[in-house]
Specification:
Layout (H helix, E strand, L loop, with lengths): L1 H12 L3 H4 L3 H30 L3 H26 L8 H25 L4 H17 L1 H9 L6 H30 L2 H23 L5 H17 L6 E2 L4 E6 L6 E6 L2 E7 L9 H13 L7 E5 L5 H9 L4 E6 L2 H10 L8 E5 L2 H7 L5 E6 L14 H10 E14 L3 H13 L2 E6 L14 E9 L5 H10 L5 E4 H8 L12 H4 L11
Parallel strand pairs: 5-6, 5-8, 6-7, 8-9
Antiparallel strand pairs: 1-2, 2-3, 3-4, 9-11, 10-11, 10-12
Length: 515
């Protein structure tokens, strides 16, 4: 037995760390750092792609799938190549080339999205796959360098695998809780690229054989310069959105709030009663028809955006108390700094998730609840379910009103499911929208866009609502009763256990808007 054992040990010992100059601390730093970097790239890629692909379950799934593919390919190829080539020759290029690609990613993706959108998915996949695979190759390369004896194989492999996992966890938490909230995504990627190229230079200095650092440094610098002039930049990057505020050339006090490339709100800073978006005029028509003129209301708004409707209520119904749940504190800050939100009486904005905000409200405490929360073009799924709507019904007075903005296209599968969900919860439901979209013209094919749904335990005054819609020149109609049941067409209600909102939604037009 001893001749076999001795032979095996000698074979492994040819790659001993003593001859390769890779100590245990260096190994830990390399594995930890490269694993963390893969997760930083993955999470930031989601933010970078959101303005062009939307922040949907499909986009998240695609990015996660590409990142996992990169990890699998890099781990497999890194180990295989490390068995065939001196591992010392691989570390510097793996770190440096990945760093250069990461630094170029913001400029490349934004330019592709603007000038060659058909190639965006391919380019996006490569900017995640290539650096992810190179960085994932570091762990098997380092493992090869650290193995000295078969008797320590389990210890070395287990330790480095654990270090890599911890690095991935730290990269995830650091990015999600710290970096994205404090730095623009382009700055995160350029900074990460710089660190990786610096790591490549240190590895090259130790082995005095890798000479690619100057060229890669130039690439990182070029990436930074290109990002500064690339299209698609943001006025502000928040935890959730790329934010721009666009002035209306035809109205001096008009501003459009654009989140991830989509128009979410129009605000007239000087005249809050001016309502540009048709769906906001429809909501105003519903509320004005449902409650006596000038009567102050106790209102709760799920989703803030530009706070167009809370401002409208404050201006038209003095004494109204509006509580707003807006999850993005960056959007709230933009309202104060760019959209003229001062200390208007009666508007209280809380930075919180809408579902959690609902739970904090007392029962029978609100005359009106307005649902206008969006992630991209979709209502966050947990705000669409029977359970969420039951909570909304709980906080409404007996004669209270729930009115919500929906966006859907094509066969309107999500909208039908959401209206079906409302009919499970409220005694009276009405749907407002373009006649072709809500079944008033059965010969026409639905186009889709914004729809407004109204729900209450008291009957909706259809005649007064239709008159108000006409006054505001919306051209929209109302469907309710048996016609609404027919329009729902047997759609399955949404629950916390079943709410495939992203899958039900049809592709939307780039001009769809939702606050």
């Amino acid at each position: 037995m001893s001749p076999v054992t001795g032979s095996s040990s000698s074979a492994v010992a040819e790659g001993a760390p003593g001859s390769h100059g890779l100590g245990p601390r260096t190994a830990v730093v390399l594995v930890f750092g490269s694993s963390a970097a893969v997760l930083v790239v993955e999470i930031v890629a989601l933010r970078l792609l959101a303005p062009y692909l939307g922040l949907t379950l499909e986009t998240s799934t695609m990015v996660i799938g590409i990142a996992l593919t990169a990890i699998a390919v890099g781990s497999w190829m890194g180990g295989r190549i490390a068995d065939q080539v001196d591992p010392r020759r691989l570390l510097g290029p793996a770190l440096g080339v990945s760093g250069a690609i990461v630094a170029l990613t913001p400029a490349v993706l934004r330019s592709t999205a603007e000038w060659a959108p058909v190639a965006l998915l391919l380019i996006a996949s490569l900017t995640i796959l290539v650096p992810g695979a190179l960085l994932s190759a570091v762990t098997p390369i380092v493992t090869k360098l650290r193995l000295t004896s078969l008797a320590e194989t389990g210890t070395v492999v287990g330790r480095l695998s654990g270090v890599g996992t911890v690095g991935a966890i730290v990269g995830t938490v650091l990015t999600g809780f710290v970096l994205v909230s404090r730095l623009p995504v382009s700055g995160i990627l350029i900074g990460l690229g710089t660190l990786l190229v610096l790591g490549s230079a240190l590895v090259g200095w130790r082995r005095r054989g890798w000479s690619g650092t100057p060229a890669l440094t130039l690439v990182v610098v070029a990436g930074g310069l290109a990002t500064s002039v690339a299209p698609g930049g943001c006025d502000t990057e928040t935890k959730y959105h790329c934010v721009r505020v666009v002035a209306d050339p035809d109205r001096a006090s008009g501003r459009t709030l654009v989140l991830d490339g989509l128009r979410h709100s129009y605000v007239d800073i000087d005249d809050p009663t001016f309502l540009e978006f048709e769906y906001v005029r429809a909501i105003a028509s519903v509320v004005d028809a449902a409650f006596p003129e000038d009567e102050p209301l106790s209102a709760y708004h799920v989703g803030g955006g530009g706070l167009t409707f809370p401002r409208y209520l404050a201006a038209t119904r003095p004494g109204t108390r509006s509580l707003v749940s807006e999850i993005d504190d960056g959007v709230v800050r933009v309202n104060r700094e760019r959209l003229g939100l001062g200390s208007q009486a009666g508007i209280d904005v809380r930075v919180e998730d809408g579902r959690l905000g609902l739970r904090r409200l007392d029962a029978d405490s609100r005359d009106l609840v307005v649902g206008d929360a969006f992630g991209g073009v979709s209502v966050p799924w947990h705000l669409t379910t029977v359970e969420a709507l039951t909570d909304i019904r709980r906080v409404l007075h007996d004669g209270g009103l729930y009115v919500a903005n929906l966006i859907d296209h094509g066969d309107l599968a999500f909208a039908r499911a959401e209206v079906a969900t409302l009919t499970e919860t409220f005694a009276h439901v009405a749907l407002i929208g373009e006649p072709t979209d809500i079944g008033l013209d059965p010969t026409a094919t639905p186009v889709g866009g914004n729809l407004v749904v109204v729900a209450s335990d008291r009957p909706v005054d259809l005649r007064a609502t239709q008159a108000a819609l006409g006054t505001r020149r919306t051209g929209w109609g109302i469907t309710t009763g048996d016609d609404l049941v027919s329009w729902i067409d047997g759609a399955r209600p949404l629950t916390d256990d079943y709410a495939p909102v992203d899958q039900l939604l049809q592709p939307s037009s780039p001009d769809s808007s939702g606050e």
